[in-house]
Specification:
By secondary structure, the chain is α+β, with helices and mostly antiparallel strands. The protein contains two helices and 13 strands; from the N terminus they run ββαβββββββββββα. The longest helix is centred in the last third of the chain and has 131 residues. The chain is rod-shaped. This is Myelin oligodendrocyte glycoprotein.
């Protein structure tokens, strides 16, 4: 069921379920106001792929729009979907050429209806209806939702294409991985070859350093041997001196023993002498 809408009755209509909201929008208008406005539906326009749709906007207060600059603009790209000026259709986006029409029957009543044929999923989105006259620039936004009832159907060729693309992508990933792995192995081999080439030089240097250290060690050993020989020589001399000292001590002890013996003899002789003196003294006293 369809109902007519707009400033005045026109030959294009809206679905019955949109009537209530549209009437509410009309009741909010101020017909007596001198300020021009663009009024649009506050709910989205729905359609399925391949259908024709009409995007509704109108002027408030109602005014003849045939001499105005009217533009329908796709919001996401800011591209011109349809451009009308002074009775002529001007430039527009390439993808909308031959598919849009500004309905002229309602222009005199202020209806700015845009007819779009054969809508597609890419047509979904917001559209701005803009009007410019001597009084200034006004606009309103209309949302279009396009559904594809066959989007859930999976075609065999799409499945095959997805499988092929998946296999190609997996093959590409494997090839890249193998290539990087081979490049890393090649790099490692080059590093190893460089190390092997430098290894003889390093070994020669190490051998030279070892021989140098060995020569120094031999020199230190020779010096140590000389020091040991000198120590043994000094030790031999010390032993000889010790032996001589022992001999001297033995001779001293021998002489000391003889001296003690001689002393004892002297002590005995002194005692005999005292005895003889005492006897002489007694003999003298007797006489």
């Amino acid at each position: 069921m369809w109902f007519v809408s707009g400033c005045k009755q026109s030959s294009f209509a809206l679905p019955w379920r949109t009537l209530l909201a549209y009437l509410v929008a009309l009741n909010l208008l101020c017909p007596g106001s001198a300020k021009l406005r663009v009024v649009a539906l506050n709910f989205p326009v729905t359609a399925t792929v391949g259908q024709d749709v009409v995007l509704h906007c109108h002027l408030s207060p109602c005014k003849d729009a045939r001499s105005l600059d009217i533009r329908w603009i796709q919001h996401r790209s800011s591209g011109l979907v349809h451009h009308y000026q002074n009775g002529e259709d001007l430039e527009q986006m390439e993808e909308y050429k031959g598919r849009t029409e500004l309905l002229r029957d309602g222009l005199s009543d202020g209806n700015l209806y845009l007819h779009i044929t054969a809508v597609s999923s890419s047509d979904s989105g917001s559209y701005m209806c803009t009007v410019q006259d001597d009084g200034g620039y006004v606009e309103a936004m209309v949302n279009l939702q396009v559904s594809d009832p066959f989007s859930h159907i999976v075609h065999p060729w799409k499945v095959a294409l997805a499988v092929v693309l998946t296999l190609l992508f997996a093959s590409f990933v494997i090839i890249v991985f193998l290539h990087r792995k081979q490049a890393a192995q090649t790099k490692n081999l080059k590093i190893k070859d460089a190390v092997l080439e430098e290894l003889p030089v390093i070994l020669v240097k190490k051998i030279e350093e070892f021989e140098k250290e060995n020569s120094q060690l031999k020199k230190q050993v020779a010096e140590l041997v000389e020091q040991i020989e000198e120590f043994e020589k000094e030790n031999s001399q010390l032993k000889k001196q010790v032996a001589e000292l022992v001999e001297q001590i033995e001779e001293f002890e021998k002489e000391n023993s003889q001296l003690k013996e001689h002393y004892m003899k002297m002590v005995l002789s002194a005692a005999d002498l005292k005895k003889q003196v005492a006897e002489l003294g007694e003999s003298f006293l007797q006489y």
